[in-house]
Amino acid sequence: xxxxxxxxxxxxxxxxxxxxxxxxxxxxxxxxxxxxxxxxxxxxxxxxxxxxxxxxxxxxxxxxxxxxxxxxxxxxxxxxxxxxxxxxxxxxxxxxxxxxxxxxxxxxxxxxxxxxxxxxxxxxxxxxxxxxxxxxxxxxxxxxxxxxxxxxxxxxxxxxxxxxxxxxxxxxxxxxxxxxxxxxxxxxxxxxxxxxxxxxxxxxxxxxxxxxxxxxxxxxxxxxxxxxxxxxxxxxxxxxxxxxxxxxxxxxxxxxxxxxxxxxxxxxxxxxxxxxxxxxxxxxxxxxxxxxxxxxxxxxxxxxxxxxxxxxxxx
Amino acid sequence: xxxxxxxxxxxxxxxxxxxxxxxxxxxxxxxxxxxxxxxxxxxxxxxxxxxxxxxxxxxxxxxxxxxxxxxxxxxxxxxxxxxxxxxxxxxxxxxxxxxxxxxxxxxxxxxxxxxxxxxxxxxxxxxxxxxxxxxxxxxxxxxxxxxxxxxxxxxxxxxxxxxxxxxxxxxxxxxxxxxxxxxxxxxxxxxxxxxxxxxxxxxxxxxxxxxxxxxxxxxxxxxxxxxxxxxxxxxxxxxxxxxxxxxxxxxxxxxxxxxxxxxxxxxxxxxxxxxxxxxx
Lengths: 315, 280
Hints:
Shape of chain A: globular
Structural class of chain A: mainly alpha
CATH architecture of the largest domain in chain B: Orthogonal Bundle
Number of helices of chain A: 14
Helix content of chain A: 55-70%
Largest sheet of chain A: none
Number of helices of chain B: 13
Shape of chain B: globular
Oligomer: heterodimer
Largest interface: A-B, 102 and 105 residues
Helix content of chain B: over 70%
CATH architecture of chain A: Orthogonal Bundle
CATH topology of chain A: MetI-like fold
Strand content of chain A: under 5%
Number of domains of chain A: 1
Number of strands of chain B: 0
Radius of gyration of chain B: 23 Å
Strand content of chain B: under 5%
Number of strands of chain A: 0
CATH superfamily of the largest domain in chain B: MetI-like
């Protein structure tokens, strides 16, 4: 009896791998270490984190977890420190407020600074080159710097207040119910505005100057030129900057944790700090993961348009 | 508007520049000033110190303090940040080359995965990541921290380098291959020199991600044997009697390496960062 070798699906796949052009499999080999690391340390933990959000896992009783359905989410939305607490004292609302105000301020101030950087005055190259310095400094250093600004009696801001006769307004900003959140916002703005400015400045440089010349001949005002030439020219870059800063600000943990720890009385409690405290101080990892899942869902709202935008430029 | 500057306009520009840069630079200058003041001068609350109130004692005490000396933390930070820089650079260069120059199946999907992985909340990853670290017995080890930091830096580095490598013409690579260069040689001699600014920015990015991280180190490192500078500075700031001179000095020390590296890569930084976030 003759055995006829039929190429089945598996040998065929194998053959196509072996016949795969040289330039293809080597590409996989190159990309493999990075993808394996990211898979192991990002994708697996995210999947696992979503899974944990539906369990009662705890750090103190490893291995004894069971599924509890949506219970974590019910508890979350019943916790005033997470949602629906006193105005300005719940993590969900604070996170959204902080992100919105900080990013809007960064965009407005960044555009202003970008316009300023275009003016050709002596020394401008120096100003441009030092601009990004605030962005590269470690967050913990920025927090300590602003601590030294806002200490009662010997912080710079309070010394100046005293010297101009407003000594009664002496306050420790990070410890003050009304000033703590503005203090956090100022730190974000301090760090990120230069990045906005430099990116927008760079995109303004790509606008052809004959457009401005034509507008000048037509007698367009400064505002008119800004609205009809500059703004459309920088819209794409501005959009990308806004989206990545929404993501970074919303996810940022250390500005708040290292300065106020979420206090005073939850006045600066934000989602990342809430998750961290639940996980690391209360040992309720299932519950913490559930709060993380809520963050993830909120982030998707900005991530999806971002990916679509980038995908379009990628091709 | 761009070409001609009248004198009033120039003055206006300078006034606005000083306002903006005052806001950015005053906190840094004040920090440096405080680090050189005696404790008495800090607590007197005077704006301008007398020259004999300036001292190096805050810096000296960071080294001499027996209970919490800066030396271990500084050493850990340097070892970890340099390892992270080296690992991210090698791994992301290979991956970027593979994704840029090889039309592999699923390439676009992989690129999107890379981009998305930067968006996940660090704290959500942290919970299961901690379990993973415990399972692999990497808690309180350099390797655990280096692994975590490399991952934080990788997606951005790959994206950034890929966009630089996309600029290298395919014909150039093929010419090198025809001339007898092997694949890795082509990467080293033809592609990398063109992508040099990208490499500098990627290295810088990986370094500052690791150097400044508090979140992951605080969870992985359970003793001072692997703790880094951000933990040290936070720890001395939390002590009952805050020694603000020492805190200022420690903060200056954590900033110095970053500022030096920044000065080296500054001219490519924004272009590179933007490439890492947008182009692909």
